[in-house]
Amino acid sequence: MTAPLLSVHGLKIAYGGIHAVRGIDFEVARGELVCLIGANGAGKSSTLKGLMGLVPHGGAIHFDGELPRHAATHAIVARGLALVPEGRGIFGRLTVAENLDMGAYIRADKPGIRADLARAYDLFPRLAERRAQLAGTLSGGEQQMLAIARAMMGRPRLLLLDEPSMGLAPLMVRKIYETIATIADEGVTILLVEQNAHLALKVSHRAYVMESGTITLSGPSAELANDLRVRAAYLGE
Amino acid sequence: MNRVLEPLRARPLLAFALLAALLAALPFLVGAGLGNSWVRVLDFALLYVLLAIGLNIVVGYAGLLDLGYIAFYALGAYLYAWLASPHFGLHLPFWAVLPIGAAFAGLFGVLLGAPTLRLRGDYLAIVTLGFGEIIRIFMNNLNAPFNLTNGPQGMNLIDPVKLGGLSFGKTLHFHGLTLPSTYLYYYLFLAFTLLAMFVALRLRDSRIGRAWAAIREDEIAAAAMGINTRDMKLLAFAMGATFGGLAGGLFAAFQGFISPESFTLWESILVLCMIVLGGMGNIPGVILGAVLLTVIPEALRYIGDLQRATLGHVVVDPSDLRMLLFGTALVAMMLFRPAGLLPSRQRKREFAAEDGVAAQEQSSLYDTKA
User: CA nearest A64: which of A34, A28, A32?
Assistant: First the structure.
């Protein structure tokens, strides 16, 4: 087996005296869709923020070599990590097209950007219809589509998705997850953080279960979905 | 209004020529109609346009609320006075002093920006407000132990602008044409204003301008796009401060005298009002706001004369009226044109589009399978 694309050892994140992540290990292989599930406050989002250099962290992160401890977010993005932030983080007063354009900020290959833009509109016809509209006027689901499409515009080697189902209507959630599956099928490596364990386990290959800042269970998603402990704690059975 | 402008829109060259002719003839028209003191008002209007364009980079483009912007104006003005007045006996030429002053102010922009990088909104506003006051109070008190600023008396006999053999401080007689000092400064300030406009417009559409817009909208998402948010915010502060310093140098040379009184918190707020009233982020709006808020208070002075002529004495002080009018204008603007008089394309759409969102939310809910 080749070395994993991302491997994390002893990741620790603390906010003042509160330990959000207490030394976790996990890895993501190339082409994999891995999910990190757990209850509210388990430290899932903090983990992603730590990977992106948005919060100070301890431990070692290997992504294309070891990441320097205090690497700035923009430098990490340049290495090929992309984050779809919790709450989407779209640029509300820019148009849909301008948002997508910002996604390709670090790239200079104009023809490649144009091709990817066409592909994004292909994947999300709804965004094509609304390309001249201000992103802030889109519905929640459309904003989530835009946030994913925008992150894809940077041609990331690893896409981090933070709670893509949050605050969306069930129909829209299903639509978003269909899209995530499509993107994964195209070979994009994805690390997905989700409270909705049912959905996340269905779409992912492997899963880690997080609880109070530590990883308590891990394994292939299909197995975890049948694990009695997971079923009791996260699938409401 | 639109019927008048429509034919011009179709012929941009003609519109441009008309505008250029109007701008060139403006001091003569104003001077003949209203007197030389109004040409002076025009000069000040241009200085404020310059300031407003600079502050718009920080507030309108990058979304960093700066309430101490006038400090950079002060730094540019004082640096000009130090290098071109009898105070230190230095009389460096204008073309050398002005860039030094602009760079000096820009450096202070970075000095203000660096410790405030983590602050946003209200917190940033308070710190910048404090910065503005610190600079003013320093200027007020640095006459001892070493007389740097001459304290509250201010510095005078500052050299006027000299270009070649032409001194902008004296009336110029040129082929039967009489150009008083205020006219000459008008053209100088106009040239700098046009340059500033050009730079500001180019910046907005550049990669840097897009990065600023992203930071203004959502800083974390901007960082996740690979934008170096630290450098970009510092750059916004530095660019804005440079424009402020440039305007300050021009102000010192024009006025010949500066004192800390010219650089109060009120001036910072006035410049901010200009860009808010005119339309934040949009250069034509910012210019309109600056011109209106310079010219209207001057026009209000006539109300004092009017009272003296009709009632025999001044009942309402026009300068009190000025504040009342500003307040009313801002409240009226918030009610009727919340995005400003000439809003930017983005803000206009933002304020217009809200109604449609609910309907879209509904429709997109039910046709997800489409």
Answer: A28
Tell me which of B270 and B319 has the higher pLDDT: B270
- Please report residues of B whose CB lies closer than 8 A to that of A169: 365
Helices (H) and strands (E) in chain B, counts: 14, 8
Chain A contact set for B368 (CB, 8 A):
141, 171-172, 174-175
- Best of B207, B212, B217 to substitute, by most chain A Cβ atoms within 10 angstroms, is B217
Q: The domain containing residue B17 runs over which residues?
A: 1-34
By residue count, chain A amounts to: 237
Beta bridge partners of B261: none
Inter-residue contact A25 to A215 (CB < 8 Å): yes
Structural contact between residues A206 and A37, judged by C-beta atoms closer than 8 angstroms: no
Q: Say if A73 is an interface residue toward chain B (CB within 8 Å).
A: yes
Q: Which strands make up the sheet holding A6-15, listed edge to edge?
A: A18-28, A6-15, A58-63
Contact across the interface for A103 and B225, Cβ inside 8 Å: yes
Confidence band, pLDDT 50/70/90 cuts, at residue B19:
confident
Q: Tell me the two tokens of residue A1.
A: 């087996």
Q: Give the residue among B195, B312, B187, B319 at the shortest CA–CA distance from B246.
A: B195
ipTM for the whole complex:
0.90
Tell me whether residue A201 is exposed, middle or buried, using C-beta atoms within 10 angstroms of its C-beta: 0 to 12, 13 to 18, 19 or more.
buried
Does one domain contain both B129 and B19?
no
C-alpha span between B139 and B81 (Å, rounded): 12
Average pLDDT, chain A: 90
Q: Of B257, B278, B299, which residue constitutes the final position of a domain? A: B278
- Same domain? For B50 and B16 the reply is no
- Closest by Cβ to A175, choosing from B229, B349, B368: B368
Continuous H helices in chain A? 44-51, 73-78, 96-103, 110-123, 125-129, 140-152, 170-185, 197-203, 221-226, 228-234
Pick from B207, B218, B357: CB nearest A91: B218
Contact A139 B368 (CB under 8 A): no
| Cβ neighbours of B217 in A, within 8 Å | 90-94
Residue B290 in any domain: the answer is no
Domain end: B246, B278, B310, which one?
B278
* CB pair distance less than 8 Å for B365 and A101: no
Q: Are B84 and B253 in contact (CB under 8 A)?
A: yes
Rounded to a whole number of angstroms, the distance from the CA of B240 to the nearest CA of chain A is 22
- State which amino acid sits at residue A114: R
The pLDDT, as a whole number, for residue B370 is 34
pLDDT at B344: 74
Which of A186, A201, A193, A203 minimizes the C-alpha distance to A233? A201
Q: What percent of chain A has pLDDT over 90?
A: 62
- Minimum CA–CA partner of A99 in chain B: B214
- Residue B148, pLDDT above cutoff 80: yes
